Amino acid sequence: RPSRRACPQPPQRIMAAPCCPPGSHGPGETTAPTELHGGDVTLDATAALPKVSCYLSEPPEASTKAVILLHDIFGADSGRTKAIADAYAAAGYITVLPSVFREPLPTEREGLGMVLMVAGVVRTLYRNTWPHVGPQYKRVLQYLKEERFVTAVGLVGFCWGVYPMTHLLKDEEEPVLKAGLCFHPGLPVFAVTFDFNVKKYLAQCTVPIAYLAARNDPASTKPGGIADVAMRGKDAYEKCVFKPYKDMKHGWVNKGSLDDPKIKRDYEDALQVSFDFLEATLL
């Protein structure tokens, strides 16, 4: 079993990331640890895979189904990401939110100008490409399969999370992965890191995917976009979902203020769409 550790201090405020479209929500207010139901754990390294720091939220009853949350560029403490992990756990899934970045994003307190701030975020993206983050996600999968006896796993990402999600879903060596959903998917991450193979990766995906996109997300993430087109003609397509939210801006699900009635409405709708999607695919 993983060892538990004390909850880390919330991160400092971070400026908007250049991988997000203009007008996006920033990192958002971090959910207080006292409001959370899960806890921070460390999965120890194995002979072939590294240790991973995670937030683990347990369902009310034993389950053989799991959700892996894939955090955005602002990390696992971004906004209410951990609270959303608790929501999936309450719905009956063992829910794991790995924290895979080597280092935190540069913060406003460091006194960097905008140019240096952007350069710092781009550096973070380059230091956290698939060769680095991939083994960490595979360690989580190993834990779920070998220690929790999970038979079906769904991936749920936020913005940057579409990057590892796409890599994982094209891997035919992981039949336990049954589906992937991303809120406000950040497909531009591939281009920012000079990986221009996203169409090829999507063509290799054989399980259902869902993209819930904001109004300022690129056309590639919406109905008729490259993911939609790549999935057409596959058996999985009938369960795919490509839903735009015209009143929302990028980042609303885990970072938009729920004091805004429209954001609250579309936050609740997006979560329900994700619950329905997982119920239909994690069989």
pLDDT < 50 runs, ≥5 residues: 3-15
Topology, number of strands: 9
Helix proportion: 25-40%
What do the pLDDT scores average to?
Answer: 89
Task: Give the termini separation.
Answer: 26 Å
Structural class: alpha/beta
Structure write-up:
The N terminus is likely disordered. Strand 4, helix 1 and strand 5 form a beta-alpha-beta unit. This protein has 283 residues and is an alpha/beta fold. The protein has a nine-stranded mixed β-sheet with strand order 1-2-3-5-4-6-7-8-9, sandwiched between helices.
Which features would summarize this protein structure in a list?
globular; nine-stranded mixed sheet; alpha/beta; about 280 residues
Short description:
This protein is of the alpha/beta class and 283 residues long. It contains nine helices and nine strands.
Q: What's the helix and strand layout?
A:
Layout: E1 3-4, E2 39-43, E3 52-57, E4 65-70, H1 81-90, E5 94-99, H2 114-127, H3 130-146, E6 152-158, H4 162-169, E7 177-183, H5 188-192, H6 198-204, E8 209-214, H7 226-231, E9 241-245, H8 252-255, H9 261-281
Parallel strand pairs: 4-5, 4-6, 6-7, 7-8, 8-9
Antiparallel strand pairs: 1-2, 2-3, 3-5
Helix pairs in contact: 3-4
